[in-house]
Structure formats: C-alpha cells, structure tokens
Amino acid sequence: MRPSQLVCSILTVCLVACVPSQPEPDSNNLALLAQQDASFEQASPTRPLQFPVDHGAHENFRLEWWYVTTNLQDSEGRQFGAQWTLFRSALRADATVPTNAWHTPQLYMGHMAITWPTGHHAAQRYARGGDHNGLSQAGVESAPFAAWLDDWSLAATDDGVSSLLMNARDGGFAIDLQLTTDQPLVLHGVNGFSQKHAEGGGSHYYSQPFYQASGTLTIDDEPVQVSGQAWLDREWSSQFLKADQLGWDWFALHLDDGSKLMLYQLRQRVGDPYLYAVRIEPGGRRTVLDPDLVELTVQSWQHVANRELPLQWQLSIGNSSPMVVTALHPQQWMDLDFAYWEGVVLVSDVDGNDMGRGYMELTGY
Prior knowledge:
single chain; mainly beta; globular
C-alpha cells in the first residue's frame, strides 16, 4: 500500500497552478484520503481486474499511483535503492477529455529517489495530464504500457509489464534501469480489492514483486553500475482510509529464500492497527497471513527531520523465528513538499544474520 502523504495533498498543490506550497506543520494531509465523494467510482471486490487495461489510468477514480522500489548492489556488494513514482489525482469525476489540455481534471505528481550507503536524494515534479505545447506533460497508456511526467518515464518493452525501462533525472542524479520478470502479477486482498479498515473500504491493488533489475544509478554525476530486485505496486481508489486512521507502516521485503513478504498496518486513533500481511512464493502463489499470528513491534526510534521515527522493527509470524527489519541508514527522508520516510531496509535474524532486504514507508508521524 503506497498512499504517501504527497498524494493526500496533491489537490491543494495543483489547484494553485501546480506551484509547491509547504503545509502547516501540524496539518493532517492524510485527511484527504478519508474524504468521501460519491461522484467518483468506488473500489469494490465485485469488480474484477482486467489486463492490460488496468495497467492504465482509471480517471473515474479519485486517486491512483504507479510505484516502483528497487533494492540494488554494485560490484562491491554495497547496498543502493531507487524509487520511481507517478501519482494521479482527479479534481472531478468527469473523465471527458477537454478540448483544452489545460482544463483537464487529471493532475500528476512524480517522485524519484536514490539511496546509497551514506546518502539519499529525492526530487519531485508536477504536471496536468496531457501535452501542454511542450511546457509540461504527463499521462499513462495501458497498451503498450507507458507512464510519464515530462522525461521521467516507466515504459514497457513488451505487450504487458514483464519488461520495463525506468528513467528519471534530477541534476546530477539519475535512474536508468531495466526491469524484467517471467512471474505472474499478484492480486492483493479479494480479486484485487484490498480492504483497509475493519468496517470496509479500500482500493484495487496488485503488484509485481519479482523483477530483476540492472542498469545505472548516477550519484553526484558519477555513474554506478548496479543490479538487484524491484517491486511494482499499482493501486487506485476514491477513498483509501477512514477518518479514525492516523497513518501507516508499510514493508515490501525480498527474502533470501526467494519468497516475498508484503505487510502494512494502518494505525488507528483508538485500538489496534488494521494489519494485512501476505507471503508470495515464486510462481505467484500467495498466502494471506492471519493478522492474529503477526506481531510487529518497534525495536528502535531515531530522531529524523524533527520527529521520532521507528526505524528498526521485529517481525514475528506464528512460531517462526523473528526477523529484524532495520533501515540502511536513518536519513532516507523524502524532504519534498509533502514529506514522509521511505527507503532501503535490511532484514536479518535476531543474531544479525542476513535474511533479505526491502523497502519501508512510514507516514503520519
């Protein structure tokens, strides 16, 4: 689940001519994800996902994203990460294409980030959907799949999404990666409907967690050849959260035994978090884990960006040995208009032996 805080405020940003504006320190940007608007189509478990059309934009839904995280290594075994994200938000439910592209209700925000062993760089862009005489452009096509904001792009080299080229650049930083897989897509929840609250509501959600990635990261104008694993998340809805939910902790883990583990908990104002966890085996077989058997506890808080963040966790599933999930380094803060923490994490057993790696996202702190 990837509804970062920037998505919660994209409407506000773009309504003022897409000029970034810093929210008040105590504003609750997550509240927008809990707003109800019956004029938009609502996510439902009775709506089956269909491909390739569902790789594209769903303009009758209010919010949507295409989200890739990559865990990479160089030839010396050093850990790197790269994130590429495109968010779409609709100002109104009418998806009719206007004669003037500047009048489109479809608004886009892009994020890119690169993490290396001692640093982190994040950047953002904004655009309305369509081509505006070359000034800015953003959009998504389903077949062949392509998502872009200006020259940031995620595009297929085949008929589906099993082979993608991922590119973004910001000054002396750049991502140029190829992602490939022969594994099937993974639908979350029920028929691709991912519930987000005990009382219902949620999103349509699928992933491709089995990409192999290779290419180049450019850091301070220096190219680094890397390879590793990548995870694509696709999600869309018109109301993700309920008003009593404060934020979330999300994990996407590549384990050394070849399986993947996706886990999120939505923190409530009162009571226990709403938790969803799934283990995915090669071949696409998934096992949804009983939340009563999943124990997720904070092991270490660290001071980052003038707040305390939980950057080390212990995860226990049933009778299995606990896993420890630790941030590669604390300073993976997305210091953008609507800030949040997201970055590379390492997975080990309680004795410190390597078990995998992945990505973690923290919001609402």
